[in-house]
């Protein structure tokens, strides 16, 4: 195999109570990438369409992640990377993670699979380190593994896959304002009160249980974030009003997707998800902020070959 075309999915990280440790994979939003072997012993970004992103190999997360993989196996194989970027950078739905995860997935296949998908997470995290200054795994893990991923530990890295309730749908609102992960990280408080911590781990444990038991009501009750959301939501226009609106219209829960500005509503079934999508669209239409809306089921496979 000399080249591979893949779909690199968008992801929702944090999911309210799972800051930096929980994420899920979407299936209706994502980039396309074409990765080819070259004879130059060099990793190059040869084409980017859709968005204005760095072409320099040391500034693009895709090439940085691939180089981390090649270094590990001491390979001097060269690769050309083409990215058709559909996920806007700084959107909060894992734009950088899609490129990092997609690139290492394709290169691993082209090299005859020296690694499994779980092993690839740590290489893709090097891309996240470049993008946000923090090697977090809650976007790259679900992008590579599909479904829900829980990072039990960063050191050593241990990632668990959680079950996906069949009827779960995600509605994403992306207000077209840019919030850089670096900036929205800098406003988070570094210390947490014991009371907030107790609320948070109670909710996270219940959320994991709800995924196993397909208990949609419990899932909804667990989607709260006492620690990060109160600070970060200030950066998102009409966050509180949206929360009230989607809750009134039957969404299971609502929160910030990754570092924002995208927000997500988890819904049960297509009918409710469409209703929630429509009320958000109506609400935001007269707010003089351009926006995009997505409705997706949970992608159980992660990156896939096209
Ligand atoms: P997101 O949460 O949507 O991934 P980030 O703010 O974390 O957004 O990452 C976007 C940053 O990463 C931007 O500064 C962008 O220039 C940089 N970047 C480098 N390479 C890529 C790439 N291939 N895809 C997306 N962003 C990239």
From TrEMBL:
Catalysis performed (reactions): L-homoserine + ATP = O-phospho-L-homoserine + ADP + H(+)
Compartments, record wording: Cytoplasm
Enzyme Commission number(s) of this protein: 2.7.1.39
Origin superkingdom: Bacteria
Gene3D superfamilies recorded: 3.30.230.10, GHMP kinase, C-terminal domain
Keyword Cytoplasm: yes
Main location as per UniProt: cytoplasm
Annotated GHMP kinase N-terminal domain residues: 62-147
Alphabetical list of InterPro entries matching this protein: GHMP_kinase_C_dom, GHMP_kinase_C_sf, GHMP_kinase_N_dom, Homoserine_kinase, Ribosomal_Su5_D2-typ_SF, Ribsml_uS5_D2-typ_fold_subgr
Molecular function GO terms recorded: ATP binding; homoserine kinase activity
GO BP annotations, alphabetical order: threonine biosynthetic process
Keywords: Amino-acid biosynthesis, ATP-binding, Cytoplasm, Kinase, Nucleotide-binding, Threonine biosynthesis, Transferase
Pfam families: GHMP_kinases_C, GHMP_kinases_N
Pathway(s) of this molecule: Amino-acid biosynthesis; L-threonine biosynthesis; L-threonine from L-aspartate: step 4/5
Domain GHMP kinase C-terminal residues, every copy: 208-285
Root EC class: transferase
Cellular component per GO, a single term: cytoplasm
Family affiliation: Belongs to the GHMP kinase family. Homoserine kinase subfamily.
Protein task: Catalyzes the ATP-dependent phosphorylation of L-homoserine to L-homoserine phosphate.
Protein name: Homoserine kinase
Native source organism of the sequence: Christiangramia echinicola
């Amino acid at each position: 195999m000399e080249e591979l075309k893949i779909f690199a999915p968008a992801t929702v990280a944090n999911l309210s109570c799972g800051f930096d440790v929980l994420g899920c994979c979407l299936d209706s939003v994502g980039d396309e990438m074409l990765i080819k072997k070259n004879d130059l012993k060099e990793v190059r970004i040869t084409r980017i369409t859709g968005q204005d992103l760095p072409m320099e190999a040391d500034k693009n997360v895709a090439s940085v992640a691939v180089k981390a993989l090649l270094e590990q196996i001491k390979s001097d194989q060269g690769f050309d990377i083409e990215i058709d970027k559909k996920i806007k950078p700084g959107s909060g739905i894992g734009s950088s993670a899609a490129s990092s995860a997609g690139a290492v997935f394709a290169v691993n296949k082209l090299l005859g699979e020296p690694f499994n998908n779980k092993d690839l997470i740590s290489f893709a995290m090097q891309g996240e380190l470049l993008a946000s200054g923090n090697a977090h795994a809650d976007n790259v893990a679900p992008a590579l593994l599909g479904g829900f991923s829980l990072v039990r530990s960063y050191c050593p890295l241990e990632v668990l896959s959680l079950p996906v309730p069949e009827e779960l749908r995600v509605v994403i609102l992306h207000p077209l304002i840019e919030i850089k992960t670096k900036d929205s990280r800098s406003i988070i408080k570094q210390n947490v009160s014991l009371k907030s911590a107790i609320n948070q781990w109670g909710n996270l444990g219940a959320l994991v249980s709800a995924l196993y038991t397909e208990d949609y009501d419990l899932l909804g009750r667990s989607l709260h974030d006492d620690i990060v959301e109160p600070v970060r939501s200030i950066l998102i226009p009409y966050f509180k009003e949206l929360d009230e609106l989607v809750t009134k219209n039957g969404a299971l829960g609502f929160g910030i997707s990754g570092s924002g500005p995208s927000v997500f509503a988890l819904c049960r079934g297509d009918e409710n998800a469409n209703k929630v999508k429509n009320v958000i669209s109506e609400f935001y239409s007269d707010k003089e902020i351009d926006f995009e809306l997505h409705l997706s089921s949970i992608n159980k496979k992660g990156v896939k070959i096209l």
